[in-house]
Design goal:
- By secondary structure, the chain is an alpha/beta fold.
- The protein has one domain: 3-Layer(aba) Sandwich (Rossmann fold), CATH 3.40.50.
- It contains eight helices and eleven strands.
- The strands form two sheets. Strands 3, 4, 5, 6, 7, 8, 9, 10 and 11 form a nine-stranded mixed beta sheet that branches. It has a two-stranded antiparallel sheet with strand order 1-2.
- The radius of gyration is 17 Å and the shape is globular.
């Protein structure tokens, strides 16, 4: 599998990525959104491990597990942890999200994060590369199955943090509520002021009480096209 290495910021972690699944703004924003007090976390569909890497780097008390269906991606995630000296706090299991009941005990993690495929299976032209198609479409795990897995893995009060597309926000929130992951935080992401949102960040609490906080919009750039101060902070620039 062809990979490319990059230093995420001066003095920061080194990340090896594949052309089929390059580092995206969505993962970086989700890692910042999900940061907080947690002892044990899991990344569902961890790919090459960018979310694990960012979360572990910023939280010395955290231990992370990655669950990834593709064996080659799982191995790359392990290598990314190892080259950054994080193998003692991070591990990767090659397995199916739809079979978490066979892999983990109920309530094993207090944080669950995921950057899932954004599109239902069969919607639009299928990517010719299998890895790219799997990352784009819900061929191996639907949004409902993802929330089912998260609900099993989290105890009461555990956090589920996800990034998704705005056009599926209603579906996402309904699936979370249906599986006992009460939506508690919501944040929209826009390229610039005046633009429509292109991403949405959501957090649910297992067994939480109703009450959703809508946080300020994340803008990637200001009206003049310059990176915002928040984006500079998130990217350590």
């Amino acid at each position: 599998m062809k990979t490319e290495s990059m230093e995420l910021w001066p003095g920061g972690p080194v990340f090896r990525q594949t052309p089929q699944a390059p580092l995206g703004t969505d993962s970086v924003l989700l890692a910042d959104f999900a940061a907080g007090k947690a002892a044990r976390g899991i990344d569902l569909g961890c790919g090459s491990g960018i979310l694990m890497l960012l979360l572990l780097w910023g939280a010395p008390q955290l231990e992370m597990t990655g669950l990834e269906l593709r064996a080659d991606s799982a191995q790359l995630a392990r290598e990314n942890l190892e080259q950054n000296g994080l193998s003692d706090r991070g591990s990767v299991l090659c397995g199916d999200i739809r079979r978490v009941r066979e892999l983990f005990r109920s309530g094993s993690f207090d944080l669950c994060v995921t950057n899932p495929p954004y599109f239902p299976a069969g919607s639009g032209a299928r990517a010719p590369d299998p890895a790219r198609a799997q990352a784009r479409e819900e061929t191996d795990c639907t949004l409902d199955e993802l929330c089912t897995a998260a609900a099993w893995l989290l105890p009461t009060g555990g956090r589920f943090c996800v990034v998704h597309r705005p056009e599926r926000l209603s579906e996402l929130l309904c699936a979370m509520t249906r599986h006992g992951l009460e939506p508690k935080r919501l944040r929209l992401c826009c390229h610039r002021p005046g633009a429509a949102p292109n991403l949405v960040l959501a957090e649910g609490r297992r067994g939480g009480r109703p009450g959703l906080a809508v946080e300020p919009v994340v803008y990637l750039t200001d009206a003049d096209g310059r990176e915002t101060e928040e984006i500079r902070r998130i990217y350590h620039r």
